[in-house]
Specification:
Helix content: 25-40%
Distance between the termini: 47 Å
Radius of gyration: 19 Å
Shape: elongated
Structural class: mainly alpha
Strand content: 5-15%
Strand order of the largest sheet: 2-1-3
Number of helices: 10
Length: 217
């Protein structure tokens, strides 16, 4: 039995008014993220027996307005997500040529381990910074911005650099690794933030792809 199974049992047999979110039930949609025994987790992927706890504490995610019971308003997460400019802005609009991105390229190496974010918001909940600074971009948004900055197909560099290279961007992170511990996809989010910090000190970094004739479009 998973925690999500248990919540359905409670809803069916004890309290039909109990509210929580779920959709895929296989750890792909992220909608059932909640705090279980004081840690952000996906309820559908958290097995009751593995918690080794006589009492299981469930609560809504931190840093989000609670709408009802375990249902939160995800607006704070997605407001910051949008500031990181997550959409692909192709260097050549309308180009239908197949882009070739070698797996051993800088983008290929990072994307392989960091592209599977399901926007569940668990990392934002686990991070201590949004509690004192709600304008902080958050680990997921910064990780997505890094992938776009490294993506040779993308041309929107200046706006993303302005978002991440700021007091509410990477420089606000205290490298506590809470986001890494909470991520259900094991994305090394703090590594993305540290990588950006190191490379923001390099003149021209991320802009160099715009003038590279070998850039994939």
């Amino acid at each position: 039995m998973t925690v999500l199974d248990g919540l359905f049992e409670i809803q069916r047999k004890i309290d039909p008014s109990l509210s929580f979110r779920c959709s895929c039930r296989v750890g792909m949609c992220g909608s059932c993220a909640m705090v279980v025994n004081y840690e952000p987790r996906l309820a559908c992927q958290t097995r009751v027996e593995k918690l080794k706890s006589a009492v299981i504490n469930v609560a809504p995610l931190h840093h989000y307005p609670v709408m009802k019971d375990l249902v939160v308003d995800m607006a704070p997460f997605f407001d910051q997500w949008k500031k990181g400019r997550p959409s692909l802005h192709p260097a050549i609009k309308g180009n239908k040529k197949l882009a070739i991105v070698p797996p051993d390229s800088e983008f290929g190496k990072h994307a392989a381990h960091k592209r599977d974010c399901i926007t569940c918001g668990a990392c934002y909940s686990a991070c201590s910074i949004p509690g004192s600074n709600p304008d902080y971009l958050g680990p997921a948004a910064i990780n997505k911005s890094l992938l776009r900055l490294l993506d040779p197909r993308d041309s929107l560099v200046a706006d993303r650099l302005q978002a991440v290279n700021s007091e509410t961007g990477v420089w606000r992170c205290h490298a506590q690794f809470n986001c890494v511990a909470a991520c259900p996809k094991s994305i090394p989010l703090t590594d993305s933030i540290m990588y950006l910090k190191r490379n923001l000190a390099r003149p021209g970094k991320f802009n160099d792809k715009l003038s590279d004739p070998n850039t994939a479009h």
